[in-house]
Design the sequence.
């Protein structure tokens, strides 16, 4: 740790060259935007964006496998059709230690402008803040819990031994995958600021990453599993939902090796005002 700190300090002073300092690098291979972080000599791939579909994947480091994808462009139902996974134009830039991806995508008469700000990975974890705005309009179908999806997680769970995602969760509640159908139904609505899919190791995949989605405000969450025996096919969809087109939103993605949903920290409870309410109730 002392050596790493010394190298970072020397790099800040310009004494250590860029070949020794951790940095982002981005390359394009066909429709895939590949994102690496590290030194010139050792720069593992941490994320990849498919420009043809807007699907985005992250892993937490060299020991991590690949797993759940995140469709960061909104998807929606209109005219009896699902519009999901459309192409985007992307630019990249660094902002201090962060890498900023700027995306623009359009589906029908709805356009989305989005930034994905990746923080440098550390301690087998990587995070990104996604901020998006929409312009234009679209007439949504009346489909409670799935009309408009600002973020959509796509993964695979074929059986208890063949999966990229072991369990879905909403808030601190962990669910089991059904054999097929609704994972979390639209009614009664499940509403929270956090949801995601846990990873882990199955017979199919070693160290599949867990994906956490954290919104500042509560959002409805729903999900569906399509019965499928091919592990190369994604059959799990898990998403944030709205019955109307959202004009703007932001959330944090965290990808790590957790195999259980962590309990809320003391600071998180204080920030949410939960401890204050409990104490007041006790006093009364």
Sequence:
């Amino acid at each position: 740790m002392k050596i790493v700190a010394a190298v970072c300090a020397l790099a800040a002073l310009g004494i250590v060259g860029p070949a020794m300092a951790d940095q982002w690098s981005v390359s394009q291979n066909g429709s895939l935007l590949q994102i690496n972080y590290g030194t010139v000599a050792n720069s593992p791939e941490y994320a990849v964006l498919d420009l043809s579909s807007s699907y985005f994947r992250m892993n937490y480091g060299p020991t991590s496998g690949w797993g759940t994808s995140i469709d960061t462009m909104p998807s929606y139902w209109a005219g009896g059709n699902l519009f999901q996974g459309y192409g985007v134009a992307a630019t990249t830039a660094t902002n201090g230690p962060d890498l900023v991806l700027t995306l623009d995508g359009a589906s029908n008469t709805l356009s989305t402008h989005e930034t994905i700000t990746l923080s440098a990975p550390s301690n087998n974890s990587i995070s990104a803040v996604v901020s998006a705005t929409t312009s234009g309009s679209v007439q949504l179908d009346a489909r409670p819990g799935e009309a408009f999806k600002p973020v959509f997680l796509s993964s695979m769970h074929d059986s208890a031994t063949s999966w990229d995602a072991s369990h879905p969760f909403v808030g601190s509640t962990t669910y089991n995958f059904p054999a097929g159908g609704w994972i979390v139904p639209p009614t009664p609505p499940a509403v929270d600021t956090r949801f995601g899919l846990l990873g882990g190791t199955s017979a199919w995949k070693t160290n599949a990453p867990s994906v956490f989605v954290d919104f500042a405000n509560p959002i409805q969450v729903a999900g569906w599993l399509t019965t499928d025996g091919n592990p190369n096919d994604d059959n799990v969809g898990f998403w944030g939902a709205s019955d109307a087109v959202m004009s703007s939103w932001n959330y944090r993605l965290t990808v790590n090796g957790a195999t259980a949903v962590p309990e809320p920290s003391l600071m998180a409870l204080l920030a949410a005002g939960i401890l204050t309410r409990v104490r007041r109730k006790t006093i009364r």
Observations:
- Confidence is low (pLDDT under 50) at residues 1-11, 274-284.
- The chain is about 10% helix and 45% strand.
- The two ends are 50 Å apart (CA to CA).
- The CA atoms of residues 78 and 145 lie 14 Å apart.
